[in-house]
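Page header: ASSEMBLY MODEL / four components / 738 residues total.
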Amino acid sequence: MSDTGAAKRPPTIDDVLRLRAAEPLPSRDGNPVEGVPRDGAAPPRIVEIARLAGVSPITVSRALRHPEKVAEAKRRKILEIVERTGYATNPHARALRSGQSNIVAAFVSNLQSEQFCLAVQGCGEVLEPQGYQLMIGQTSYSYAKETTMIQSLREMRPAAVMFTGVIEIEENRRALRALGIPIMETWAYPRDPIDMLVGFSNIDSGRQAAEHFAERGYRRVGFIGRRSGRGALRLTGFREGARAAGLDIVAELSVDGVSSMVDGRRALGDLLSRNAAVEAVFCANDLLATGALLEARRLGMRLPDDIAILGFGHNDVAEELPPGLTTIGIDSRDLGRQAGSMILQRMRGEMPSEPICAVELTLTRRGSS
Amino acid sequence: MSDTGAAKRPPTIDDVLRLRAAEPLPSRDGNPVEGVPRDGAAPPRIVEIARLAGVSPITVSRALRHPEKVAEAKRRKILEIVERTGYATNPHARALRSGQSNIVAAFVSNLQSEQFCLAVQGCGEVLEPQGYQLMIGQTSYSYAKETTMIQSLREMRPAAVMFTGVIEIEENRRALRALGIPIMETWAYPRDPIDMLVGFSNIDSGRQAAEHFAERGYRRVGFIGRRSGRGALRLTGFREGARAAGLDIVAELSVDGVSSMVDGRRALGDLLSRNAAVEAVFCANDLLATGALLEARRLGMRLPDDIAILGFGHNDVAEELPPGLTTIGIDSRDLGRQAGSMILQRMRGEMPSEPICAVELTLTRRGSS
DNA sequence: TTGTAGGCGTTATCAA
DNA sequence: TTGATAACGCCTACAA
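Prediction written out in full:
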C-alpha cells in the first residue's frame, strides 16, 4: 500500500492527469487499451470446454450440475479442463435458463448490529464454499424497504432467502412463499414460520431475566426497551417471569426507534429519578444496557450492589466494561451456521427432518448482576 | 410477531407436523399448491407490457433504459403500465444480453467494522434509489479470499465494484481493470488507484496525532498498532510528525491480526511496564484505544493527566466511555456517499472531472487527551 | 422515432 | 449415457 500523504492538499488536475497517464483505464466498450495486458480476453465459455473435451456443451453442463449422470472418464476429463481453464458458469445465463441462481439473499434489519452480522457471516461460512454468493441487504427495520426488497427478489431469482428476523406482513409472507425457494427466518420463535426457522424465544429471554433476578435476590425490578417487535416480546416474558417469581416491576421505560447507548443512559436516569428503590434493571438489548451501566457508574453507583443491570445480546464490548455486563443471548454465528446448513440441505432438494430449530439462550454472568 | 415461548422445549415432531399442515410449502416445481394463493403466477414480461401499450418490446425496453429516445406520449403510457403491473426487468436476461447488470459489488475487509459498514450504507443510500443492488462480500483481510472474489466478478458482471480499502496485488488490479467497469477504492491514498478513489492519507492521520500531542504539551509518546497495512502507514506518519515536533517516541507496540479491545488492554499494560514515563499513546484504531483507555482506568490512572490516549476511527461507543476517547477519523458514511455518487456518474457514462477525491480527517477531542 | 431479426450462454426436453 | 434442438427474456445492430 502506498500513501502519498497528500490528503491535506486535495489532488490537483496535474496529479490526476499524471495518474491517468500512468494507468489508462480500459475503454468502456471493452476494446483493448494500450498498456492494459490482454487479459481482458473473453473468459472461456461452455462450448470451448466442450470442444476441448470432445463432448457437447450439455455434457459439460451435466458434469458440473449433475456429475452422477456423466460417465466417470468423461466427467474427470471435463472437470480437469474446467480446472485448468478457470472456466466459470455464467450465472446470468444459468439463472435465465434454469431459474436457479447461486445467489442467496440475506436481509439484516441493521448492518450495524454485531449479532446480525455474525449470523450472516456464519451463514456465509457454510454456503460460500458450496459456490453460493451471499447478497446482503439492509431493511433498516422498515416495512416499506422490506416490501420493496422482497418484490425485487422475484426477478433476482435467488436460490434461497434468509432474514435476521421474521416476516410479519402477510403480503410479504405470501410473496416469499410464492418464490418456491427455501426461506429462512431467525431471531424469534413464531408459531408459523414461512418455511424454515432457526430461532429462539424472545419471551423466554424475558422470563430468564426475571428468574435470574429472583435467584440473585432482587425484588424491585425495572425494564428498559422498545414496546414493539422483539422488545415487546422480551417485556412480555419478563412480566410473566416476574409474576411467577413474585418480583415487583416498579418501572417499564420505553425507547423508540433504533436504540443507542445514549437512550440507555437517559432511560436509566429517568427510571432512577422516578423510582429510586429499583434494585435491578433488564434492558432489552446490550446497547441500552451498556448505556445504563455507564450512567449508573457515572452516578457513582456500585454494580451490582446499588443496582444490577442485565442486557440481551452477548455483546463483545460489554464484556470489557467494568464490572462487565451480565447478558442473555445466543451464539449468533452458530445460529447463522445452522441456518446455512438447513438452507443448503433444502437447495439440494432434501427436506430437513426438522424445519424448525431452536437455539439455546444462555445467560453469561459478569459483574453487573 | 408471535412467539410461542417454546424454545426451552425443542419442537416435537407433532409441533412440526401441525405447522406444516397449517402452511404447506409450494412445491419445488412452482406448480400451484393447495392453500397457496395463486400469486405465484409468472410475473409480467416485457412482451406483455408491450402488448398492453400497443408497441413492440424494444420500445418498452427503450422507454426504461433510454427514455429520451422514445416519444413523450408513448413513454408516458408505457411507464404507467409498468407502474400498474409492477413489471420489473429480469436482471439476468438483461445482464446476459447487454453485459450490464444492476449489481454493484461492495467488498469490506471486515463486516464487523462499524466504519466499513457505514461506508457501505452510505454508498447504498446513493445507489439503491437508482435501481442498483449492493452485493456485499467480506474479504476478511485475506488475499486469498480477495483473489477468489475478484475472479468471481468476471462472470457476475457487476455494474461497478467498490472496496473499503485498496487493492495491492498486481494480478488483482489487472483483473479488476480488465472488467472495464468503474472500480472504487477507498480508505487510503495510494499513488496509483486502479480507477477511482475516495480516500484519505493514513500517514497524515499519524502526523496529526503527533501534532495534537505536541499542542497539548506531551513529550514522551507511544504507539500501539499493527505493523502492516494501514497501521504501518499511521505509524510512519506518527514518526514523521513526532520528529518534526520534537516528540520522543518511547515505545512502539505491535499487535497482530484483527485487533480487539483485549489487545489494546494488554498492549497498554506492556507499554507502561516497559516505560512508565510515557505521557500519551496513539492507538492505530479505536478498538485498541478503547481497550487501552479501560486498562488505564483499571490501573487507577486519571485521563488525560496521568496518560493521554488518542484513537483512530470516530467510533461511536468510545464517545460514551468516560472520559470520552479523543479520536482522529473521517465521516465514513459521507465517504460512502461520495463514492456512490462517483460510481453512479461513471455508470452513466460520464467521466467525473476528478477521479480521486480526498475526504477530510478530523480530530474529535474528548476527555482522553 | 420505431420495428425486425437475432443472439447473449446456458440448460430443459426429448430423442437416440 | 449422450446429443440435438429450442427456449429462457432482454437488448444490440441494423433497417425502415
